[in-house]
Write a structure and sequence with these properties.
Blueprint lengths: L2 H20 L4 H17 L6 H10 L6 H14 L2 H13 L5 H17 L2 H18 L4 H13 L8 H10 L3 H29 L8 H7 L3 H26 L5 H18 L5 H34 L2 H11 L4 H15 L5 H18 L4 H15 L8 H8 L6 H24 L2 H11 L3
Length: 445
């Protein structure tokens, strides 16, 4: 196929994607169907050989086996109410600070989002736990909704992250290095978000009024404080065990996911919150989320493989070469493309479409694939929250009070999006923010 041919093919594919998404078609089926329909006119019936080879290569990936396990762990933790234990422990520690409830939401909901592993479920789960207490205590509605979005969505940047696993699987990179590379940007983001909330509430106390509940938290009996601290510490310990087993090489990502599931069940039993109905509901919800994820992975993989076989990587490489731009500007261009994609599609598809296409080009320009992969995750974090069409905004609308319009939601998330953008730019300018920890712990590749 000629260069002009692949350019025209790319426009046709993108046009069909936009059309089918606008019609509300199921994402995975739409992507695979578009690839097969267009491919039939290019390759005749030989294109159908791509389906079994893609399914075999994709679903036999040992790394991808971790996805249902992490999702199951997250569902067990949230359904059993262990997220509340983390929330109560955080409030006990920082309850004297004005805006402490919103600060707790950022930290705890980030962890809950990481347990769930995907943005939509992270926001919905975080909102169901934390939004009502903030509104009942008189917190500013924009502040309350903004921290829910910031905390719940940040879960994909805090290991274990499903999009990071997908990036590592699709580009043949180390999951452990990805997890380590994301930890410093995640920490920087949390610090900046907390600083914004604290300063904002200090300048305008009406955003976070002091209540009798805050005073009650300070006067808890010692025995109750000890129990709250124990429950919160055990909940956090499970996350550190899961991450630590991967980073130290004790377990693979899949094995650590299984370890996390067992740990979540044990915690529910220890906290006397284990019920057969909760166990069943967590399993059903996990099955639904995994089914959706796998359909998307399959469809996006078929689409991506067809596009790659047609020569899109060569087209993009030639195009970037003819621009005569500095390498960093090529990286910026990729970030802009992914930012725009985030308006219409979710994090799974962006990773599966862009990672195998952009990462080899970034490496050929002399950049570390882990650095580029973490930038991609930060970019997706921003893209799916950006007005007017970032799809995560509609998850927030689903849990917001009925009288909250989209305009108010846009205003509530804007300052938090700007903070994420500052982190993205900072990590681009100073790559060691991402690379220092994996290079220190696991050595340079």
């Amino acid at each position: 196929m000629t260069k002009m041919g692949i350019e025209l093919l790319t426009l046709v594919l993108l046009g069909f994607i936009l059309l089918f998404f606008a019609l509300g078609a199921q994402v995975g089926l739409a992507l695979a169907g578009i690839a097969m329909a267009v491919g039939y006119f290019v390759w005749d019936d030989g294109i159908f050989n791509l389906i079994p080879t893609t399914i075999e290569a994709t679903f036999n990936s040992f790394i991808l086996l971790a996805i249902p396990l992490y999702i199951y762990m997250g569902q067990l933790l949230t359904k059993s109410g262990i997220g509340d234990a983390m929330f109560n422990a955080s409030q006990m520690l920082i309850g004297r600070v004005r805006g402490s409830l919103a600060i707790s939401v950022i930290g705890v909901c980030s962890m809950i989002g990481a347990m769930v592993g995907i943005i939509g479920a992270g926001i919905m789960t975080s909102g169901s736990i934390a939004l009502r207490p903030m509104l009942e205590r008189g917190y500013d509605r924009r502040m309350a909704m903004g921290v829910i979005m910031a905390g719940g969505a940040l879960g994909i940047l805090i290991p274990p992250s499903i999009p990071m696993i997908m990036f590592a699987a699709s580009t043949q990179n180390s999951v452990g290095r990805m997890f380590l590379g994301a930890m410093m940007p995640a920490l920087l983001t949390i610090v900046l978000l907390v600083a914004y909330v604290a300063i904002s509430c200090w300048l305008n106390p009406a955003k976070a009024p002091k209540t009798a509940a805050d005073e009650a938290n300070r006067n808890l009996p010692p025995a109750q404080k000890l129990r709250i601290a124990r429950d919160g510490a055990l909940s956090l310990l499970l996350i550190f065990v899961v991450l630590g087993s991967i980073i130290t090489g004790i377990a693979t990502p899949t094995e650590s996911g299984a370890l996390g599931v067992v740990g979540a069940v044990l915690l529910a039993i220890v906290f006397k919150r284990f019920k057969l109905e909760m166990f069943r509901m967590a399993g059903m919800q996990t099955g639904i989320l995994v089914s959706v994820a796998m359909w998307i992975i399959m469809g996006a993989s078929v689409f991506s493989n067809f596009h790659l076989l047609m020569g899109v990587q060569t087209m993009v490489s030639d195009f970037t070469g003819t621009l005569d731009l500095p390498p960093i500007m090529i990286i910026v261009m990729f970030q802009v493309i992914m930012l725009l994609l985030g308006f219409i599609i979710d994090e799974f598809i962006i990773v599966l479409m862009c990672a195998p296409l952009f990462t080899p080009i970034a490496v050929s320009l002399g950049y570390d694939p882990i650095w580029f992969g973490v930038l991609m995750i930060v970019n997706i974090l921003i893209a799916v929250q950006t007005p007017p069409y970032g799809f995560a905004l509609f998850y927030l609308k689903g849990i917001a009070p009925s009288d909250v319009g989209m305009g108010e939601i846009y205003r509530s998330v804007t300052p938090f999006i700007m903070i994420n953008l500052v982190v993205l730019i900072t990590c681009m300018i100073f790559p060691d923010i991402i690379l220092w920890l994996p290079n220190t712990v696991m050595g340079q590749e």
